[in-house]
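Anyone up for a design puzzle?
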């Protein structure tokens, strides 16, 4: 793939000197030619006679389009005339286009009329790029033409993209039937389309000042991919440089914060109801084994511990300081932290950017940068790290140890995490509040939890990603080893700014998060409960070896609902092999149903459940099992739970670790049965057919995203 960078640089420099933020049609064409982006033969005419001259040189039939920096979407101004076939039509079309432009916007600047060879008919697509506030340059491809924002069939990827990534983007378009040829038509040239995507990707990567680019429509055909219309928007203001310490620097600081040998409480208090009192009590009562250092301006001791007037008076090293003082005092005390080489400051106080006081937050951040102090917060509930019995928060204490690390930007969500963990006995390694994320963010936590032997799964509630590109880079590495789950809040919010291109308008929706998270292996949750259940269950569910999912149920109605849920959550129902079908029929009554779902019917004794589950687990062609139980007195709920656990455990002892989840419907006894199964690492839910399939689907998404499935 060739590129003429000096030519593009010259155009952009001229545009900047002229004070413009968009390119004229001729300039867009020159950029496309410089990067081997195929466009039709074209010329810009400033008069009707010139249009006739150019038309004769280019050849009929023609498309004629108004060229104006003030008319961004030509179709809205009726500014396109197609299939112009002779000079008389050229003259007429030229006059009509000028009149329509003035009628649409009387003050519009008119560069002229673009005379363009009609492109070879094909599937209308859009290829483009935009600049996302979190992720930077993103490239897009999808269904284009006038319906682009209606159909919203588009996929995104961080720029630059490789040829393989471009091919995968094309494959991710939902409307594959159009690309493969409709009603006997030929398939589009996917390689040409992938090359076009790569060219756009290289262009915006080479020239960051290209803020938005639209190629719409791109006519994709068996012969190639041609951009019939091009729009390019510029932004010459460079984005602020983002602070990003090295991985080693992050680990050094985060290890001192999460595993401190000493913790100071700035604003420690002996008075019940004060934040400084609650934090101190939690540290003491939680069993933290390191040094606890209360800081109080006048007291000699707080809750039986020696207190100091200032950090400067503390004789021993301090790793982390928890702030429980008013926001206005934080910056000055941070200078003291710097003098004592404190690694991290946990800023519980509010009153910073979340209340509009951005300047104060920036001042605090500047002091932290000056002294190489990492900040957690501000405006947070603190954090828990159970391997160290560290409860550095003013909220309720929690000490149930487990392998799940969770974080949240919201204090309320943090407390929901706490309550769920306690209620379900999930157990956690950490719960971390991030709040305003002035400094420490999800990247830092992922880097720490990646190396943390006490963490197997990471779940994150996110309202925004401060540096989405850095997050994607770290998450791609971490998720290959440990599942990363994200609940992105605000997914239905409108874009933060008005977009001047289709690509940017579409990027303003939530699709970009879906695509980027999938590319970097992150499992996305769409509700708080889903995030928590995924975090709870993914460590229990073995990684599947393939896509074949089999349903075994005691109730036909539940089987249908479970099958619907499998489709909804992206699971593949196994096509039943004839020999396996016959094997199941040996255990079920004649009026039952093999196939998939396997319906053993509700009146069967425990042995029928036992035999069919065992058969499903032992057959290597079955990769995962979904069980549907129906409460009967013939096979009571706890009997079902115990026999299921026995069969599963027997297979696990043989080394046969296969995903299995269960849905139990019936009277309240099914709740006890589900708890019994959960205690034995089998996700089971009462009164729902969706939830067990959803958690299995999450495991499959993680395995697929990270290339772990055999087929």
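Challenge accepted. My sequence:
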């Amino acid at each position: 793939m060739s590129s003429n960078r000096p030519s593009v640089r010259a155009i952009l420099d001229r545009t900047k000197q002229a004070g413009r933020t968009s390119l004229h049609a001729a300039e867009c064409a020159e950029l496309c030619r410089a990067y081997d982006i195929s466009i039709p033969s074209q010329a810009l005419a400033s008069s009707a006679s010139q249009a006739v001259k150019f038309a004769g040189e280019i050849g009929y039939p023609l498309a004629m389009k108004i060229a104006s920096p003030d008319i961004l979407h030509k179709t809205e101004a009726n500014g396109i005339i197609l299939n112009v076939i002779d000079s008389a039509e050229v003259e007429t079309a030229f006059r009509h286009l000028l009149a329509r432009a003035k009628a649409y916007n009387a003050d519009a600047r008119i560069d002229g009329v673009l005379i363009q060879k009609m492109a070879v008919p094909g599937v209308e697509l859009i290829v483009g790029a935009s600049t996302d506030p979190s992720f930077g340059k993103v490239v897009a491809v999808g269904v284009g033409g006038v319906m682009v924002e209606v159909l919203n069939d588009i996929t995104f990827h961080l720029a630059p993209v490789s040829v393989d990534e471009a091919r995968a983007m094309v494959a991710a378009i939902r409307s594959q039937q159009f690309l493969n040829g409709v009603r006997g038509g030929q398939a589009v040239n996917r390689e040409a389309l992938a090359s076009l995507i790569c060219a756009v990707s290289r262009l915006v990567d080479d020239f960051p000042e290209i803020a938005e680019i639209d190629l719409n429509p791109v006519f994709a055909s068996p012969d190639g991919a041609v951009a019939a219309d091009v729009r390019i928007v510029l932004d010459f203001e460079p984005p602020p440089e983002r602070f990003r310490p090295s991985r080693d620097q992050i680990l050094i600081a985060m290890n001192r914060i999460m595993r401190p040998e000493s913790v100071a409480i700035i604003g420690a208090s002996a008075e019940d109801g004060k934040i400084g009192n609650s934090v101190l009590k939690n540290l003491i009562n939680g069993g933290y084994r390191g040094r606890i250092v209360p800081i109080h301006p006048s007291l000699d001791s707080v809750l039986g511990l020696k207190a100091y007037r200032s950090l400067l008076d503390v004789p021993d090293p301090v790793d982390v300081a928890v702030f429980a003082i008013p926001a206005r005092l934080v910056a000055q005390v941070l200078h003291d932290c710097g003098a004592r080489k404190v690694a991290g400051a946990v800023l519980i106080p509010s009153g910073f950017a979340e209340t509009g006081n951005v300047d104060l937050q920036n001042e605090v951040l500047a002091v932290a940068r000056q002294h190489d102090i990492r900040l957690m917060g501000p405006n947070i509930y603190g954090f828990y790290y159970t391997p160290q019995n560290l409860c550095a928060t003013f909220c309720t204490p929690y000490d149930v140890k487990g392998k799940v690390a969770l974080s949240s930007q919201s204090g309320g969500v943090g407390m929901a995490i706490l309550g769920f963990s306690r209620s379900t006995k999930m157990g956690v390694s950490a719960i971390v509040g991030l709040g305003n994320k002035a400094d420490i963010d999800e990247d830092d936590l992922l880097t720490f939890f990646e190396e943390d032997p006490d963490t197997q799964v990471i779940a994150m509630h996110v309202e925004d990603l401060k540096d989405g590109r850095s997050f994607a880079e770290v998450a791609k590495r971490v998720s290959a080893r440990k599942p990363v789950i994200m609940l992105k809040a605000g997914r239905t919010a409108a874009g933060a700014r008005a977009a001047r291109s289709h690509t940017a308008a579409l990027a303003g929706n939530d699709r970009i998060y879906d695509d980027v998270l999938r590319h970097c292996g992150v499992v996305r949750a769409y509700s708080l409960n889903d995030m928590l259940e995924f975090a709870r269950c993914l460590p229990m569910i073995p990684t599947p070896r393939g896509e074949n999912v089999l349903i075994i149920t005691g109730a036909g109605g539940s089987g249908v609902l479970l099958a619907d849920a499998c489709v909804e959550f992206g699971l593949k129902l196994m096509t039943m092999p004839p020999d396996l079908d016959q094997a199941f029929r040996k255990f079920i009554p004649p009026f039952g149903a093999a196939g998939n779902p396997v319906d053993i019917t509700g009146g069967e004794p425990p042995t029928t459940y036992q035999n069919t589950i065992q058969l499903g687990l032992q057959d290597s062609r079955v990769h995962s099992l979904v069980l549907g139980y129906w409460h009967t007195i013939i096979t009571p709920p706890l009997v079902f739970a115990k026999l299921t656990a026995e069969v599963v455990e027997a297979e696990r002892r043989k080394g046969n670790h296969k995903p299995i989840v269960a849905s139990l419907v019936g009277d309240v006894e099914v709740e006890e049965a589900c708890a019994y199964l959960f205690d034995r690492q089998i996700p089971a839910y009462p009164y729902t057919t969706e939830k067990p399939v959803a958690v299995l689907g999450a495991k499959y998404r993680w395995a697929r995203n990270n290339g772990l499935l055999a087929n």
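A detail worth pointing out: The domain at 5-117 is CATH 3.30.1490.20 (Dna Ligase; domain 1).
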